[in-house]
Amino acid sequence: MLETTTAGSLPKPGWLAEQNKLWPAWRLEGEALAEAKRDATVLWLKTQEDTGIDIVSDGEQSRQHFVHGFLAHVDGIDFGRQVEMGIRNNRYKAMVPTAAGPISLRARAHAMEARAARANTKRRLKFTLPGPMTIVDTIADGHYGDKVAMAMAFAAALNEEARGLAEDGVDVIQFDEPAFNVYMEDVATWGIAALERAAQGLVCKTAVHICYGYGIKANIDWKAGLGAEWRQYEATFPVLAASSIDQVSLECINSHVPLRLLQLLHGKDVLVGAIDVASDEVETPERVASVIEDAAEHVPVERLFPCTNCGMAPMPREVAVAKLRALADGAALARRRLGVA
Ligand code: ZN
Predict the structure, then answer these.
(1) pLDDT digits 0-9 by tens, 100-121
(2) Higher pLDDT, 273 or 66
(3) Measured in angstroms, how far is the CA atom of residue 308 from the centroid of ligand 1?
(4) 3-state secondary structure of 97
(5) SS3 38
(6) 205 beta partners
(7) Which residues, at least 6 apart from 211, have a Cβ–Cβ distance to it below 8 Å?
């Protein structure tokens, strides 16, 4: 019980990409880059195993960014047509590409890294994809004229890739939906439907990750204005509980999320964020264990999976390794205290 996992992304080594950036430039190109991506994937699998992570990931070593890594393999997107758009409800502005025609998956997006990861670990393997609502919040619409129709087109493309990943031997497919914490009404009216379309027919475990974003300034400023209690999850958890998705990954440590909201996820596995990715300060096992124990008051312990709040991509590598170890040690401590194996 209390098997550990991460939200997905891990820092890229200095020989692969620029450091401490959300959109790092690659250091290599062509076949040398492909080889370096494979090597970094294997290295992180070994590090996750050594630090005691139970359900491991490829660390997103083969993609530049969690949304655009997938979009690069999708037809119908004009990357030359960049538009400035206020994303996450105008929290920050970004230059985004345009959907200029019908959306379809050109060819498998992540087969190389999924197969490389599967061949190099016997542990359960998790793989992440961006969720449809977050994708349409990160791209301009020059074709559909309807946000929901565009989201459903991306969901179909995501589903095709997800089915391929499951065939590659991936055990858990997680869709990242930070937009679920921004457009709470849309989640109920079409966000869950788009997510379920993306996960349709998958026989492996399915998960959704909903967070308050990476530790960048725009997010930190936004969080400061959310008040003493962050209740965004209150609107989305009941609809998620009624959905076909198996697991929900959420932000917990150092956030103002009232833990009793976790009760709204009745029947789901809960990936409880016990590692803060917005701070380089490494948590003590004691601190991690206390977050797990607090969550265990609201979620059956057999449904709890200690996890990170969000991806660790922009973090110094040695800090990320120390935090993975703290996560595993904290889970072990919580197991002893709660008297579970
Ligand atoms: Zn996140």
Answers:
(1) 999 999 999 999 999 999 999 9
(2) 273
(3) 9
(4) strand
(5) helix
(6) 172
(7) 7, 178, 181, 249, 250, 251, 273, 309, 310
Identify the structural domains of the chain with CATH numbers, from first to last: 30-338 (3.20.20.210)
Residue 178 Cα to ligand 1 middle (Å): 6
Residues 54-66: tens digit of each pLDDT: 999 999 999 988 8
Instruction: Tell me whether strands 172-176 and 205-210 are parallel, antiparallel or unpaired.
Output: parallel
Four-CA torsion 117, 22, 173, 135, nearest 10 degrees: -140
Number of H helices, E strands in the chain: 11, 10
CA-CA distance, 330 to 318, in Å (whole number)? 18
Distances in Å between the Cα of 267 and the Cα atoms of 11, 247, 251, 299 are: 33, 9, 19, 9
Please state the φ and ψ torsions of residue 297, each to the nearest 5 degrees.
-75, -15
Q: How many whole angstroms from 337 Cα to the centroid of ligand 1?
A: 29
How far does the centroid of ligand 1 lie from the alpha carbon of residue 254, in Å?
Answer: 14
Q: What is the mean pLDDT of the chain?
A: 94
Question: Tell me, what DSSP letter sits at residue 17?
Answer: B
DSSP state of 171: S
pTM over 0.85: yes
Which amino acid, one-letter code, is at 76? G
Measured distance CA(252)–CA(269) in Å, rounded: 15
pLDDT digits (tens, 9 = 90+) for 123-170: 999 999 999 999 999 999 999 999 999 999 999 999 999 999 999 999
